[in-house]
Amino acid sequence: MANLLVTGGAGFIGGNFVHYWAKAHPDDAIVVLDCLTYAGNRSTIAGVEQAELVVGDIRDTALVEKLLAERGISTLVHFAAESHVDRSISGPDAFIDTNILGTNSLLKAARKVWLDSGSGVPHRFHHISTDEVFGSLGPHDPAFSEATPYAPNSPYSASKAASDHLVRAYHHTFGLEVTTTNCSNNYGPYQYPEKLIPLFLLNALHGRNLPIYGDGMNVRDWLHVEDHCRGIEAALLRGKPGETYNIGGGEELPNMAVIDRICAEVDRAFAEIDGLAERFPDAPAAQRRPTAELKTFVTDRAGHDRRYAIDETKARAELGYVPAHDFESGLAGTLHWYLDNEAWWRPLVRA
Fold first, then answer.
1. From 34, 65, 82, 132, active-site residue
2. Does position 211 have pLDDT exceeding 90, yes or no?
3. Residue 346 falls within a domain, yes or no?
4. Which of the chain's termini has less CB crowding within 10 Å, N or C?
5. Any idea what the CATH number is for the domain that residue 18 is in?
């Protein structure tokens, strides 16, 4: 039995991890620390019996120290982050505060409780990061590996790069047992509807424009969130302290291909599921028109990275990680989750 502290565990990836870990490790106790910003939602982890939600800020070092010490926590899994690139462009300060200062606060608390107190307990600080820290690839460049130099291009990715370096420094300077995973674009249940897939799914249901940046040919590697959780589990159980591992989905696709698949899945759902037209009468598909008519090109995002790709050779070889979801079935499952869980997302979208 282990006691885990999961920061940001009421968010998208963190919440999915809480569900995954509770099912895979039913004897473990999970403390979720989340300040419930716009992207945190109590309902995301409702029903997970061994998860206790503590509403608080990762920058509250004293609170983190108290939780680590009093709950006998030996594993800290750090998801909490500001993560939306567009928000980082319009307001970088929140990203500096949460992603850099917040991570430093957690590291300080972990060092004090796990190392300075002399308890000597085995421990692990696992940090979740992003492939965006590596910058942008050309069309024929090799995929990002763990040895790729950092070259972040947005305030978001720069703040995550800084936090990665802090985690590494606490290992090499103080001996804190850390691991880091850099993931590609996640999708799946419980994703806040500002990211591409849930935004376009819900816009399609409501007959709203599907805003496509630039020419729509920016390329991303798509990772189902459950596969990401499996990769984190593998890093926690088999990862070597001080190491980083890239976790990808093996599905490198241009945004336009993703958008076309979303449109096709929505059209298919309306053709096959009784009652959808009555539930969502503003959807083009409710009138047997193609969802693709909602596609609208908009001005490109400032500094928009052209291509990301993940080389997950190290994770496969050292952790035994292999993604289980292909994008086609993963996207279909995601659409059906949103259709079946309207009560979860309805309060998050404008009328």
1. 132
2. yes
3. no
4. C
5. 3.40.50.720
Q: Where are the beta strands (DSSP E) in 160-250?
A: 178-183, 185-187, 210-213, 219-224, 244-247
Instruction: With beta carbons less than 8 A apart as the criterion, state whether 297 and 209 touch.
Output: no
The pLDDT tens digits of the residues spanning 166-197 come to: 999 999 999 999 999 999 999 999 999 999 99
Neighbours of 169 (CB within 10 A): 14
The model carries a pTM of 0.96
Question: Which residue in the block uniquely carries the two structure tokens 């590291």?
Answer: 107
Assess whether 131 carries a catalytic annotation. yes
CA separation for the pair 34, 231 (Å, rounded): 22
How do residues 82-139 score in pLDDT, each as one tens digit? 988 889 899 999 999 999 999 999 999 999 999 987 666 789 999 999 999 999 999 9
In which domain, by residue range, is 91 found?
A: 3-190+222-252+303-324
For residue 125, the surrounding DSSP H or E stretch is strand 124-130
Rg (CA), the chain: 20
Q: How far is Cα of residue 98 from the mean position of the Cα atoms in its chain?
A: 15
Catalytic residue among 65, 156, 252, 312: 156
